[in-house]
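Homework help board

Subject: predicted structure for assignment chain

Our instructor gave us this sequence and asked us to write out the predicted structure in token form, then describe one feature. I got the tokens but I'm not sure how to describe them. Can anyone check?
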Amino acid sequence: MLQMPAPPPGTFAPNHAAYLALVPPERHLTILETQPQELAEFLAPLDGDFRYADGKWSIKEVVGHITDTERVLAYRLLSFARGEQRSLPGFDQDAFVAEGCFGARSLADLLEEFRLVRLSSLALLQGLPPASLERIGQANDKPIGVIALGYLIPGHAAHHIQVLRERYAPK
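My token output:
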């Protein structure tokens, strides 16, 4: 698999820095490969419909959000790696979750979907030509580099896994 260096400064929006900080360069590939299994093992004993407060997403909705966001980020990565020059739109995460109907599905099914989407992301990253790593595009009216997207995929998931551990797991 392609070893990706840390995202260079100026190739991501300031609000992405916290997500990127959750993925040290020396662990990038390991995190990408192990997150789906670690998430499945952690969530297995939990009630997928649990919400830690009114108006907050359920565990199932968080998993669905992680998966949807990974698809969006992987599309952006693919687009910019292939030289797309047009700005790509943002997306409304709350609308995506509302339309995802994740509560009607089993937690096991949602976790399997996340695993499959991650395998697809890994295949995409493995096939990137080295020259594509230098490319930067525009998404949601902000610059974002291919490398930054390669780190944002596991960083975004790591952020939500951290939230699941802090707010959704029994104390």
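Reply (TA_rk): Your tokens look well-formed. For the description, you could write something like this. The radius of gyration is 16 Å. That's the kind of observation they're looking for.
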